[in-house]
């Protein structure tokens, strides 16, 4: 007899997670999730790691669903004390049809002028397209779809066995098309790509092509990560469905590892970048610029530095160069004044005083500022 989902409502003390600064993948500074557990039950989901889940057994993650019934009210109270920035939110698993928590949280974000980043495996997000449109009218937002096997690809049957109750990828792309038609930035997060299953060039190109054909503007790629209880859970599922790959995964993920060994993550990134260039897409998400932000020039420079850091990483540059770019991006993000004013007042010396900014990088920033000033004239 198959196990049925059980819903256990609860009221957490807080709902909003805050970072010192936005991440450089999704440009989110906050996150707020309406449920613990997910009925989709993808066996590769990182949320089964112990640091993310309170369950005694990783199997409970798909069947013991805990709606955070006070999430909308808690989110409203928390946002009253925070500067406006992008929030990672929304969860359109089947429970959302009953509890409507994702919709109500989007309504809070809309009321308070906060842009959102929504990452989904379900076309149910289209139910709340009206709220997303209202948010978009105030602050640019993003809706991304998680797809790791293109419809009709050789990888799709195996991936479907791991995704369990998640809606078919074809339905996600159709939803993407409707999102794009409303002028909302959308694209694909090909995460996590499964070694030996969905990381081949044919599947990657098909994902990029489906994205381009359905109005998506970016494709991000990432490798499978495995840790503690999640590692054991997924490897058991792999043994049942793809036993011929067991040795490969044990070699890529030796005990105590997290990401695959051998630099395959960077190889994936390089291949997806090549394919995106062919189809006219980005392999990075453009940073949303919030209307009224007094430091928009700083934010654009941070995006440039973060993208350069990623490019250096893909090019196998020395780690010191990559980290210098990242530290410079963080320093510009934290600046209380406009970067142009720092340069105007102190010149290159002022730019070089920022952490991570080498003399060469300071000159690059100076050139960028000069171009930025010309654009504003």
How many domains, in number, for the residues? 2
Structural classification = alpha/beta
CATH first level of the largest domain: Alpha Beta
Q: Which of globular, elongated, flat, extended, rod-shaped describes the shape?
A: globular
Description:
- This protein has helices at 71-79, 95-99, 101-112, 129-138, 156-163, 169-181, 201-213, 228-241, 246-252, 264-279, 296-314, 319-334, 339-352, 359-376, and strands spanning 6-7, 17-18, 30-32, 35-36, 64-67, 87-89, 116-120, 142-146, 185-193, 219-223.
- By secondary structure, it is α/β, with parallel strands linked by helices.
- The chain has 2 domains: 6-279, TIM Barrel, CATH 3.20.20.70; 296-376, DNA polymerase beta, N-terminal domain-like (DNA polymerase, domain 1).
- The protein has a 7-stranded mixed beta sheet. Strands 1-5-4 form a 3-stranded mixed beta sheet, with no helix packed on it.
Task: Briefly say what this structure is.
With 377 residues, the protein is α/β, with parallel strands linked by helices.
Summary keywords:
three-stranded mixed sheet, DNA polymerase, domain 1, 377 residues, globular, 2 domains, alpha/beta, TIM Barrel, seven-stranded mixed sheet, 14 helices
Reconstruct the topology from this structure.
Elements: E1 6-7, E2 17-18, E3 30-32, E4 35-36, E5 64-67, H1 71-79, E6 87-89, H2 95-99, H3 101-112, E7 116-120, H4 129-138, E8 142-146, H5 156-163, H6 169-181, E9 185-193, H7 201-213, E10 219-223, H8 228-241, H9 246-252, H10 264-279, H11 296-314, H12 319-334, H13 339-352, H14 359-376
Parallel strand pairs: 1-5, 3-6, 6-7, 7-8, 8-9, 9-10
Antiparallel strand pairs: 2-3, 4-5
